[in-house]
Specification:
This protein is an alpha/beta fold and about 425 residues long. The chain is about 40% helix and about 15% strand. Helix 5 (about 115-125) packs parallel to helix 6.
Length: about 425
Amino acid sequence: MDIFERITTDRGPIGQYAKAGHGYFSFPKLEGEISAHMKFRGKEVLTWSLNNYLGLGNHPEVRKADADAAAEYGMAYPMGARMMSGQTRKHEELERALADFVQKEDAFLLNYGYQGMTSIIDALTTRNDVIVYDSESHACILDGMRMSLAKRYVFPHNNMENLEKQLERATKRADQQGGGVLLITEGVFGMAGDLGNLSEIVKLKDKYDFRLLVDDAHGFGTMGASGMGTGEHFGVQDKIDLYFSTFAKSMAGIGGFIACNTDVIDFMRYNMRSQTYAKSLPMAMVIGALKRLEMLKTMPELRENLWIVVKALQEGLKKEGFDIGVTASPVTPVYMHGGLVEATNLILDLRENYSIFCSMVIYPVIPKGDILLRLIPTSMHNLDDVKETIDAFTICHAKLKSGEYDTETFTDISKLRV
């Protein structure tokens, strides 16, 4: 069959709904200043879909730093990959600052978090190694393992008993092949908001020989007394061998980093294909990231404001009987029951009649019959926003349970206000 012909008949598990939802449920356009209140299809909405935890995305100091850097250097400098012609003192300064903050010997800048994680796994492992990973690991981790030649074993999410069984298998196989074991988990799991069981995982190092890679994209800047991340939250940062995060969440930027001992970072610099063959992170983004990191470290009130909103939202939802799972982070899932049509009608009602914009997650990301409304609190939200949202959720949940959203067909979004 011709490749294009196959694509026309098989649009993929999510793509099959593109015509019904494009521009509304998928690829929606939020416009205006980055804020808790933005515009969607010409109407102001209270938005809970931005991973802008500390509110840095539109902070005046950040915007000034970005603008000044862009004015001085443009968006092209430095040209070329870092290994060839794209190295600057500012890139090195940012790496030193990141390493110091997360208490590691050294760090390596990555152009993108997703791209970086896939390349980290590929660079670290060989066909003789074995990877053990949590079943709810992010897609970038799964893609990284697909690139790797290493054998892999999965353990059910945060199941320590099964993890130990997988470590036994992995250790035996690695010993036979002359390889090593890499254990991968997340600090904060971005969909459910629960934490990787780092305190129990690091205890297994006394029994098994493995290296621990933690993806802390949602924990960096939000978790721990200083915002260092989930390792600090559990008091085990020194036991994490490779600490990874992205700038796309708390840092409200583009890029990411991997931090560990100097010897391994030197290896990464010369063996991560995604960085060796990619243009250097532009100077404006590097200087902007330095400013964001400085504010993250010196302005604890940003994180304090975030957690005031987080606690009010999560406690308020639980008080009204909503199921928010076992989240222990700012990520706030709200679980409901219903099919695809019910889920879309629920979102339509929230957006059109209550001006609440949040993300909807359904099958195949979660089991059939379940609906997950994912809320991301930020330091830009306030307690009035929390009350307005809980009130709207309460009304709409009652409609869902009464069957009001159980119609036979999708709403034609082309006929909605634009």
